[in-house]
Amino acid sequence: MVAARTHIIEFHEKFGHVVEFAGFKLPAWYRGINAECMAVRNGVGLFDVSHMGRALIVGENAEPFLDYVSTNNVASLGRFGGHYSLICNPQGGIKDDVVLLRLERDLFLMVYNASNREKNFLWLQQNATRYGVEVKDISNDVAMLALQGPSAELTLSKLCPENLSEIPRFGCRWIELSGLKCLASRTGYTGEDGFEIFVWDSSVSDPRLALEAWNAMLDAGKEFGIEPCGLGARDILRLEAAMCLYGNDIDESVTPFEARLGFTVKLEKKDFVGKDALVKQKSEGVKRVRIGLKMIDKGIPRLGCEILKDNLVIGKVTSGTLSPTVRVGIAMGYVPPGFSSEGEVLMIKIRDRLTKAQIVKFPFFDTQIHGRTRLSHGRS
Questions:
Q1: Which CATH number fits the domain that encloses residue 98?
Q2: Which residues contact 38 (CB under 8 A, 6 or more apart)?
Q3: CA–CA distance, 223 with 262 (Å, rounded to integer)
């Protein structure tokens, strides 16, 4: 099967190290993974995230439909409001994690993971019938770019007449980016401030407008040390911020409460897919929970490494790396609740060696120095 191409493939093939990911040809890195990570933490970086799935949900019953198929409270969203949410199966397992934006009273934009594009679109279509709403796949017709870092707003402000500081976290607005019609949402997958930018009327077959927006942002960000960033930096940055990767940290066998994503679940809603199972689990308690581990000993934890306590295997690493921000190995994984307290020292088996690691709170970095809530964030 031939890998799919995104709107920015021309740039990636010219300047990046291209690999196949989730069925797409995407850059793993450009100048280097660590350099790209630190550009985002200290300045600004630009990602092509057009491989993500994007769907418009249209119709008078769009709100009750989305309240039924997702866990968060859609009715609470005003125009240009958004939130992080989950789509669950009837057993309460996570089908995907999504961002939902309300563009008009009866018009919503949902963004979901590249690996679940077909699965999610079919699921939405199947459930939309009884609500009389239309679900439109716009993934190939609207490019999606992510400008991330403490200087993201300063960079984008050079190209837009709009006052970007008025866009709140998870809010969105229509903007003109160098004269191009775009939707900008204050969202991202790095833990930093930034925007995900949807370039309208730009298809994969005719990506000129997307490339114009991409190049304009790279030019505007030069004074802030902007770097084009690939998948390697994206994965490390999201792990440092303790954000889940679908297929590793969450999947249909994991529930929101186990993944510590219970804040997205509004059990007070009348009904939604998976509610009964989640009400039961909330009452009975979970048997495992996601934790963060920071290495005490030298070593880089990786996916699948065993987590032990008193020489007994109690879980496995679901994501692990060497963090360029905190400069030690970090990991996420699942263990029984009795072993999940902050400060608890556990062992991680790296190759054939047992190494010490300590449970820490999320995110892994110091939020006074890094991240969107840092004390000095570079906004105007």
A1: 3.30.70.1400
A2: 324, 325
A3: 40
